[in-house]
Q: What sequence folds into this?
């Protein structure tokens, strides 16, 4: 399948890895939108949160994202976890991913 994030999972495309286990992979975003910008993805291809039917996997991704925010030192300052979905959500890679953003004050609502 021609999916950038599947290629990151196999190593065909390199990434700056933060964490990996049997279910997921976390790495830094190549176009950081904040001083800390990481992504957590399932190793198995899931197109978006709409197609994610495994509650256990969803919970695991969220828990790993939270742990990465902590290990990146964002607990005190705060951070944001984001799942862009579909056209209006601004999803540009059709492989489920949670953004971990922090290290600066983030505007709300998003543009
Ligand atoms: P989306 O816009 O789909 O919510 O987020 C996709 C994210 O993936 C973007 O923040 C983009 O910078 C990041 N991205 C796209 N291609 C690559 C890549 O090859 N490597 C890494 N590390 N991040 C990527
Ligand atoms: Zn994929």
A:
């Amino acid at each position: 399948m021609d999916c950038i994030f599947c290629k990151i999972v196999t190593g065909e495309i390199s990434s700056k890895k933060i964490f990996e286990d049997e279910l997921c992979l976390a790495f830094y975003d190549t176009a950081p939108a904040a001083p800390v910008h990481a992504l957590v993805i399932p190793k198995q291809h899931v197109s978006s949160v709409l197609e994610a039917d495994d509650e256990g996997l969803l919970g695991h991704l969220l828990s790993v994202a939270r742990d990465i925010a902590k290990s990146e030192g964002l607990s005190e300052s705060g951070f944001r976890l984001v799942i862009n979905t579909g056209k209006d959500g601004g999803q540009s890679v059709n492989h489920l991913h949670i953004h971990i953003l922090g290290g600066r004050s983030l505007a709300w609502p998003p543009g």
Q: What stands out?
A: Residues 3, 5-6, 45, 95 surround zinc ion (ligand 2) (CB under 6 Å). The radius of gyration is 13 Å. The chain has three helices and five strands. The domain at 4-102 is CATH 3.30.428.10 (HIT family, subunit A).
